[in-house]
């Protein structure tokens, strides 16, 4: 899966490649990063 965020007619100088966002741990539970996105702090 690939997540892309863009701005129409935007500059390529602002292009960033971010580290991967892992959704699930090996046991199937959500990672802390996803829990933060879904449920907040």
Automatic annotation (TrEMBL):
GO terms for molecular function: methyltransferase activity. InterPro entries: SAM-dependent_MTases_sf (IPR029063). One of its GO terms (biological process) is methylation. It comes from the Bacteria. Keywords: Methyltransferase, Transferase. Its EC number is 2.1.1.223. It is an enzyme of class 2 (transferase). This is tRNA (Adenine37-N(6))-methyltransferase TrmN6.
